[in-house]
Request: fold
Amino acid sequence: MTNLINKSFTLPCGQVIKNRFCKAAMTERIAKGNNLAHQGHVNLYYRWAEGNIGILLTGNVQVDRRNLEGPANVVIDKNNYKEQYDDPFRNVVSIMINRMLQNKAPIIYGDGEQKRCFSYIDDCLKCLIPMLDQLNLNKQIINIGPDEEFVTINKVAEICSNITRTNLSPIYK
Reply:
């Protein structure tokens, strides 16, 4: 008789799970002051990843400190990650589209001639999907972003304007 719990299986996406053990979402309650994640979390998850568990689900991570599940939960919010929340160059496309859909002009920091590279999700998936079967990619970091085809932020605003069918002139700051 086969021991089913130790038998691997394949998810619909093609990813092979080595066994049927799953460490479900849990609450570590080891966050430091102000509910910050720290090296202890990295060490803990690394240890679990080295174990013989087929699937690891992340722990209890809150996005609103007013609704903690318990003491010492990790909280990802503006109090802990202010620089990421306030970065005017982060998520530029989604911010522009969101503003335009609200009939608000996009905001461009600087003259708009700064250049960036962006990726279409389909282009990313063309790289990511085949990697699911590459067992040698365990714990590897792979950059699938473009290193060419730069576009100005002004051009991004124009493209977003075409997508949203708005004709709003950018506000330059």
Summary: The chain is about 30% helix and 10% strand. The mean pLDDT is 80.
